[in-house]
Each structure stands twice: as structure tokens, then as C-alpha cells.
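Issue: ligand-bound run for fe (ii) ion - logging full I/O for the record.

Environment: standard queue, default settings, no custom constraints.

Inputs:
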Amino acid sequence: MSINDVSYDTSIPNNVGLHQDRRVLKALEKWHPGYIDWWMDMGPESFQAAEVFLRTAVTVDIQGWAKFDYVKMPEYRWGILLAAKEEGRTIPFGQHKGEPVWQEVPGEYRATLRRLIVIQGDTEPASVEQQRFLGKTAPSLYDMRNLFQVNVEEGRHLWAMVYLLQKYFGRDGRQEADDLLARRSGNADRPRMLGAFNEATPDWLSFFMFTTFTDRDGKMQLEALAQSGFDPLSRTCRFMLTEEAHHMFVGETGVGRTVQRTCEAMNEAGITDPYDIEAIRALGVIDLPTIQKKANVHISLSLDLFGSEMSTNAANAFTSGLKGRYKEVNIDDDHQLINDVYPVLKIIDGEFKTVDEPAVSAINARLRDDYVFDCRKGIQRWNKIIAKHNIDFTIAAPHVAFHRKIGEFADASVTPTGEILDKSEWQARASEWLPSQEDGGYIASLMKPATKPGEYASWIAPPKMGIDNKPGDYEYVKLD
Ligand SMILES: [Fe+2]
Ligand SMILES: [Fe+2]
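Outputs:
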């Protein structure tokens, strides 16, 4: 048995030696029933007894972390899985750069570190709550299974953060772990901590957009935390990233298959004008302009998750060695940013201007820019599908200042193409860029479940490949 192997002999599968750590094992066992209560209450509704073809980690190395089998979701083995320890790892950035990484929480950074872990932890159950009704309208068993896979893994990500809180933060860590089960997405009194995680995910196109763009924000945050000088956090995030990649795959291919079905239906009907909305909707598919509007919503909400472009908190987290930049170790600079500048886009006197700001204060701006770049690749793949069907339309990421509630552009009224308008004109034109009630109603009307193996809803193409080399008509979820 290598150190990467997951031990299943405690009630909580783990590769962190929980059987030798009675205090933490006990704390986690105490937390477990509350978690199951939360899962039964706020997890996928109506499918808790269904057998789902899910993957679980058996080891955390490349060969063994994905093993597939049927399991009822409440019996999924949520575990504590950390990537292998790198011997001799040093803090890669900030004022402690080059010192050995911390295996315990440095006292002076305790509060900051706890807050970073709690904020990350809070997003995990939030997305499960947001997606809890979607099983009932799944466009196929394949998609339903993917939804549930994402859900159980977001549950595991909560476990990952709760382990750090309970192992390294004592009494207040346990309190935070309990609070993570008490907040609820969209609840007026006890909302989740970040805006996008309190929005509704009303339909499957929203789910696919969410997993493409909001899970990608998750990826960027995890990448930044994976650089951390606090080694247990780094190792936790490195393993979470392997799961996150699947979530973005589900989203990107989900939108891609939606786009593909629309293009196929247009081709079959001989419709060439992508703006002939009525004719296209009569085919039972989602017109491309509406798909663009959905992307506009989810990208702009996700951009807000990066926080203010200029941020003292982010600067402190960087200087302290707690949260780095995307691909920190590959960046060619001194990793301390004492005299460096970073170009930050702002609106000055009614015009966009790029201003050189101290790089250490612009950490969030940089992560957001890296995110926008990362988003482009997926969008390009969607556009290739459209081009292949000879339809004159391209999906584009909206301008970073469009529809923002946080940061530099919170008060600006900017169109997706980057035109600055006055507030009233922007509001009058909003339905050109964001889904109207009618658009939402049309999408909702398509959300009819397809529950026979191999059956797919009218608006989405089957996948190219199934899960774990199984065909597309495999019985991914056994309903009774
Ligand atoms: Fe997650
Ligand atoms: Fe995720």
C-alpha cells in the first residue's frame, strides 16, 4: 500500500492517516450526521434512492483515482483526499518565499487563512443546493449521472475544507464547519457568502453555463490556493483540481451539445438566419442568440467572484504566502512584487483606460484576466461547432465591465461589446443582452425529462462518448 492509497477502514475514507488521529476522526464523525441531514434535505431531490453510476477515488495518483460503480448517493464514500506531499517544498511567493512550507497554521495568519478556507468551503454545498431540482428535468440518464457526479464531488469538496478547519483550527474551526451546513443558497436570512452562489440555476442550460464558467472560477481559486505556503491547503486543492476538471468538461460539452443540436436542426430545416428566433424555436431547440445571453449572465456573475480588482486583502494574502497567483511557479518574476506593476482596466472620465497599479494590490485583477483567457478556449470550441454547420454566428465572452456588481465597474453601464451607456439606456436595452422572462419561459418549456437509456431531449445532441467507455445508451442511473 503506497501513501497515496485511500484507507477505507475508518468510517471516513482518507489518505491522511485518520486512524492515528483520534481527535480529528472524532470531530469529523460528529459532523457527519449533520452533513447527511443536509444532503438529504438540500441534495438532489427525488433521487436519493436511485443507483447512480459514479466514480470514487481509490488512490489519489493518476491511475487509481477514478473507479466506477453503482451507488446510492447518500451512501457515496465522501472522503478526505490530499495530493501527495512534495518533499522539500518551499513557500513559492511573498515575504516568506524560499522558507520551508508550513505544516501547521502560522499564528499571525490564522484568521486570514481560516477566512480563505471558509469562503472556498461555502461555495461547495451552495452549488449542490442551487442544482437540487435539476434531476427531475434531466435531458438524459447520461446527463443526470453527470449532474449527480458533480454534486457528490462538491459535497466532497466541502469535506475537504471541513477537514482543514477541524484539524488545524480547533474550536472556532468546528464552529465554522457547523456554519457551513447552516447557510443556504438564496436564503434571505442565512445566505451563502458569495453572490453567484445565491442565484437560481433554473434549467439545464444554466447548469451547463454554471459548470463551464462558475466552476472555472472555482478552478482559478483552487489554483491560487494550491500555491499556498500552508501545505495541507495546497495538497487539498491540488487533488480537488482533478475533480474540478470533470465539472468543466460536463459544462463545456453540455453547452457544445446544445449548440450542436440547434445547428443540426437549423440545417435540417434549411434555416440560415440565426436571428429567425420564432422559426428556430418551433424546432424545439434553443436559438444561438439566447445561448449567448445565458453565457453573458453566467460569465458576468462569475467575474464578480474574483472580488475587487484592487484589493488589500488579496495583497495581504499574497505577501503572507497564503494565496498565490495562477501558475505562480511558472511566472517569470521575483514572486514578491515589491516594485512590480500590473496593468488594470478602469473607467476614467467616461473612457476605458489601462492604468499601471502596484502588482501586489492587483492580484485579483490578474487572476480575473487569467480566467477570461481560460474561458476563451471553451467558447472557441463552441464556435467551431457553429462554423462546421455553416451558420453565421459567433459566441463571445462579454466585455469584463458588462453587468458587474463588484469592483471597478460596479456602477458602470456597459454593453457586452464594451460601449459605455447611461444607466437608463442600458436598462431599456437589457433584454438584448440578458435572457428576458420570455426567453426563460421558452427554455423552461423544453425541460422535459428523458429517462430511458439512450433517450435525449429535443434540444441537446447525444455525447460523442459515454462515461468510463460505456456507450451513450448505458443505464447511467437506475430509476425505480
Ligand atoms: Fe468544488
Ligand atoms: Fe466544481
